[in-house]
């Protein structure tokens, strides 16, 4: 099993850092590091996240990391990190495509 970050997920990480830095500068880097490390737990338990049936037949799941949501897709032997955002942000299903 390997983990791949999509371009959108990588830009989400940067966006979250930019959003948090002015509010809580000392925590911004810590939150981003926590989010960047979160997928490592999926190596041993890739299906630990809640399955999002709206994406069927894809196997899209989500995990909560602190105050953020991380969505990922399991395809063959690869876990694709799709998107992530703060739980207070409003997101639609289309945002994951």
Low-pLDDT residue intervals, each spanning 5 or more residues = none
What CATH architecture label applies? 2-Layer Sandwich
Strand-residue fraction?
25-35%
Radius of gyration equals: 13 Å
Q: Figure out the total of helices.
A: 2
CATH superfamily: RelE-like
How would the global form be characterised? globular
Indicate the percent of residues in helices: 25-40%
In whole angstroms, how far apart are the ends?
22 Å
Report the top-level CATH class. Answer: Alpha Beta
Total domain count: 1
Listing every helix as H and every strand as E from the N terminus to the C terminus, the arrangement reads: EHHEEEE
Largest sheet: 5 strands, mixed
Multimerization state: single chain
| Global mean pLDDT | 90
In the sheet with the most strands, the strands line up as 1-5-4-3-2
Q: Might you state the CATH topology name? A: YaeB-like fold
Q: How many individual β-strands?
A: 5
Structural class: alpha+beta
Description of the structure:
The chain has 97 residues and is α+β, with helices and mostly antiparallel strands. Helices cover 28% and strands 31% of the residues. The protein has two helices and five strands. It has a five-stranded mixed beta sheet. The protein starts with a strand and ends in an 11-residue tail after the last strand. It has a single domain, classed as RelE-like (YaeB-like fold). α1 (7-20) packs antiparallel against α2 (25-37). The chain has helices at residues 7-20, 25-37, and strands spanning 2-5, 50-51, 59-65, 68-75, 78-86. The radius of gyration is 13 Å and the shape is globular.
């Amino acid at each position: 099993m390997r983990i791949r970050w999509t371009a959108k997920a990588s830009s989400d990480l940067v966006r979250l850092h930019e959003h948090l830095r002015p509010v809580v500068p000392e925590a911004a880097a810590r939150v981003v590091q926590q989010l960047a490390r979160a997928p490592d737990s999926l190596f041993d338990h890739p299906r630990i996240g809640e399955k999002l049936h709206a994406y069927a037949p894809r196997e899209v799941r989500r995990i909560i990391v602190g105050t953020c949501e991380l969505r990922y897709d399991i395809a063959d032997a690869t876990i694709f990190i799709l998107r992530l955002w703060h739980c207070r942000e409003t997101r639609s299903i289309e945002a994951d495509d």
